[in-house]
Amino acid sequence: VLSDKKKDSSAKTYSVTSGAVYRTTKPLSGRAAQYQSLIEEHSELNSVSADLVRAVIQAESAFNPRAISPKGAMGLMQLMPATAAEFRVRDPYNPAENVRAGVAYLKQLLDRYDGKVELALAAYNAGPGAVKKYGGKVPPYRETRAYVEKISNGTAGTGGSLSGPSRRIYRTVEVVD
């Protein structure tokens, strides 16, 4: 943990320049690579960027098919129960069903917002009702804005390109005052 406040008198203190960003580059994790063909298959079927799908999965569950959120979202793409039911998902923890439905839902949102990735991501995170409530704009919720920015800037695991063929994953660590 890097902080500008000393937490413990015995803790070592390091000088860190303001706004410093450290990046590490590594290949697809074992978990990410495990779902590569599934992601590509459903991305192609729905005409959605595989990099965008990978970024959503990284942000939503870090490629953990058993993930469950405090709000009840389930699986790799963190499907809410109503979304899972709408897309006829029997087992939301089954990666094949989850990715099929999650990518189809993401495509539905992209179509709804005329291909505007930021609005589709905001709706994926906060729900289409929130986007509508704020006049077709990204809602002012801190979590949603951070989510959209993280994925849009490629820091959720796409290597920075949501449309290109890049297969590199980047992990970004930010130092926050």
Summarize this entry quickly.
By secondary structure, the protein is mainly alpha-helical. The protein is built from eight helices and two strands.
Describe the protein.
The chain is mainly α and 177 residues long. The chain is built from eight helices and two strands, in the order βααααααααβ. A two-stranded antiparallel ribbon has the order 1-2. Helix 6 packs across helix 8. About 14% of the residues have low confidence.
Describe the protein's topology.
Layout: E1 21-26, H1 30-34, H2 36-46, H3 50-61, H4 81-86, H5 95-112, H6 117-126, H7 128-133, H8 142-152, E2 169-174
Helix pairs in contact: 2-5, 5-6, 6-8
Helix content: 40-55%
Helical segment tally? 8
**What series of H and E elements makes up the topology?**
EHHHHHHHHE
Taken as a percent bin, the fraction of beta residues is: 5-15%
Structural class: mainly alpha
Average of the residue pLDDT scores: 82
Instruction: Give me the count of strands.
Output: 2
Strand order of the largest sheet: 1-2
The best one-word shape is globular
Cα end-to-end separation? 12 Å
- Sheet with the most strands? 2 strands, antiparallel
The stretches of 5 or more residues where confidence is low (pLDDT under 50) are 16-26, 157-169
**What is the rounded Rg?**
18 Å
